[in-house]
Amino acid sequence: MIRHLLGLEGMPRHELEGLLEKAARLRRDVLEQPLKKSTLLRGRAFVNLFFEASTRTKTSFELAGKYLGADVVNFQGKGSSVEKGETLYDTAQNIAAMGTDLLVVRHGTSGVPIELQRHLDIPVVNAGDGFHEHPTQGLLDMRTVLDARGRLDNLHLLIVGDILHSRVARSDLWGFLAMGAWVTLVGPPSMLPEGFQTDRVRLTSDLDAVIGEADVVQVLRIQKERKAMAGMPSEEEYRLRWGITPERARWLSPDALILHPGPQNRGVEIDSSVMVDPRTCIAQQVTNGVAVRMAVLARLMGGHHDE
Amino acid sequence: MNEAIRIRGGRIIDPYRGVDRNDEDVWIADGRFQTAEECAGRSLRTWDAQGLWVVPRLVDMHVHLREPGQSHKETIATGSQAAANGGIAVIAAMPNTTPVVDTPELVEWVKLRAKTVDLVRVWPIGAVSVRSESEELADLYRMQQTGAVAFSDDGKPVVSGGLMRAALTYSATLTGPIISHAQDPTLSAGAVVHEGQNAGRLGLSGMPEAAESVMVWRDVILAGLTGGRLHVAHVTAPESLEALSYARARAIRVSAEAAPHHLLLTDDALQEWGYDPVTKVNPPLRPDASRTALIEAIRSGLVEVVASDHAPHHADEKARPYSDAPFGISGLETLLSGVITAIINPGLLSPLDGLALLTRGPHHALNIPYRGIEVGEVADVTLIDPKRRWEVDPNKFYSLGHNTPLAGHALVGQAVATIVGGRVVMEDGEVLHAGLSNLS
């Protein structure tokens, strides 16, 4: 029984499967209905505690909660009591003391949701911490691939980009591995972290050598501000070596899938023509984002409503 | 006439004289070691030191006392009490306070404050550069005249090679060394832990060992160029140890210290503590291969000092998110036990050679004479129970800083009494009140 969702590392396969199934069910029973207002979480309240800019993830959590009948409040780090000197933990404790049932936390520093959870009695959902994890992103990617391919076992996932600074890469890695996939991490040599290589995980900088073997390509967003720090080449050079260009898309197998966590830098890590390739699942990812977040909220706040 | 002290039955381990024997009594009166005859006729306290080690003047040459200016973290009073509790008679105080100790007046202030506190000896270290900004050389000679024993911008590297060259050149005319906090800030920018598997998994920004070793190599080469006296603080990287070997082979005047947390822990402590910044220290905890190499460098005599890098912080500061929390471990009260646990108890060095890391080693590095337990010498001496096993409980520290990843760990060996200038300042974990404790 999970109490929080802090990361996918170490999460047992049956828990992941449970969440993914629940997401599919809620998508069918709520999200795809003309009348979306479920009562599953009626009377529950949670707070989106975002200390870092986010549009997609925050909106997705908010809609997920509202579709299930919960009350949602958004809290922005900027302009808040945190800027008046209050510590993060005090802020979170105060919000919890207002009777809220769950906190969704996004923070630019790795580990913050995990430390917060030690100070709180209510469930915490990690909506992205530093470059540690972004577990609902991992879940929505898995849901999307499951929908298209019917399985994750023995699929080959390629994650391309700045792996070192990517929380999406870590959550995808742990999630897909737990579900029986194998993973190749591809990126500029200074952006490949240590500590991940196993018999089911390999690292390479040579995208062209591996792209033909991929069942799924997760294209990470290139963060331009990292350029000076981590030895990032120009966008031109990045595109040449690691961009998903129409040429590279042609080397991909016909039933492969292309994912991108968004927002995209068109013409850098992914070309506009690839964005509209039938194998590209960006819209499904966004829809599944709401579905898996509904599943997570229901799982952690559902109480006796939970089946 | 004043009271005299007789310590009998103990094992005298005196690295200053190279003596390890059981058949000596130690006599102390008027603040100095005396002959038995000299003590005759005085009221006498006789100390039965059966089963204890009796060791002259333990030194911690790398301590952050935080005063002036950061007294919420530590004060000269509480830091002195922590030293006394840890069996340490002399602490060298780093100058990265607020303001930075970069003038003779500030050096004198630290001395005077320590004198008022009146527990252990406090040897100030002056800054190398004005405000430790690595731009302008501070007045090293005038600081030495008021009591600075060494010079360091510790906490930050001397970024400018030109300034380091100037400081080392100048130090050839001084007594004390330039202490280098070796770190290339462009290789460690934004980093909070050792770059490696644990950093990768936790998504914490890592610094490579090269961030340290390229600077150690630079400073060793500059020491060779200038003939200056260099001391490398808290060394951790195997490549840094290579630089020390290079220096030794060429008789370049370089010494180095290791910190107990780098001997006792590895970056796997991140698995134990997770995102609790109690493990955040600079240089960071390293992998076991580096720890093993460091221990070997101590065993071989290449590294001749162990110092705590005592860096106390307020609990609120250490409760911040990992990347925002300050670097540092509170180490004064685990220094001696750390050396016994990591070095002496496993038999890597004899007690005599192991305790040299806290006695003769720092005196040699700082170029300060001390004769050990000899008649007429100042009576700084610590009694140690070498067998006592104890669990580190930071709530029992005298230091205001409770930040240590050794919390909950068992250590072997503990000071049972600390005598400074003939005065018992700690006995069985009870430390005398500091002269300034009401003020701090």
Structural commentary:
- The complex is a heterodimer of chains A (307) and B (440).
- Helix content of chain A is 40%, strand content 15%.
- Chain A has twelve helices and nine strands.
- Chain A has helices at 13-31, 56-67, 88-97, 112-119, 135-149, 167-178, 207-210, 227-230, 235-242, 246-251, 272-275, 282-301, and strands at 45-50, 71-76, 102-107, 124-129, 156-160, 182-186, 201-204, 216-219, 257-259.
- In chain A, strands 7-6-5-8-9 form a five-stranded parallel sheet, covered by helices on one side. In chain A, strands 2-1-3-4 form a four-stranded parallel sheet, sandwiched between helices.
- Chain A is globular and about 55 Å long.
- Chain B is 29% helix and 21% strand.
- Chain B has an eight-stranded parallel sheet with strand order 8-9-10-11-12-15-16-17.
- In chain B, helix 5 crosses helix 7 and helix 7 packs parallel to helix 8 (238-249).
- Classes of the chains: A alpha/beta (307), B alpha/beta (440).
The residue fraction in helices of chain B comes out at: 25-40%
Amount of beta strand of chain A: 5-15%
Oligomeric form:
heterodimer
Largest sheet descriptor of chain B = 8 strands, parallel
Side by side, the strands of the main sheet of chain A go: 7-6-5-8-9
Strand elements of chain A, count: 9
Structural category of chain A is alpha/beta
Q: Which structural class do you get from the secondary structure elements of chain B? A: alpha/beta
The best one-word shape of chain A is globular
Distance between the termini of chain A: 13 Å
Total of helices of chain B: 15
Shape of chain B: globular
Q: What integer is the average pLDDT of chain A?
A: 92
- Compute the average pLDDT of chain B: 96
Q: Biggest sheet of chain B, strands in spatial order?
A: 8-9-10-11-12-15-16-17
Q: Helical region count of chain A?
A: 12
Order of helices and strands of chain A: HEHEHEHEHEHEEHEHHHEHH
| Percent in helix of chain A | 25-40%
**Share of β-strand residues of chain B:** 15-25%
The radius of gyration computed from the alpha-carbon positions of chain A, rounded to a whole number of angstroms, is: 19 Å
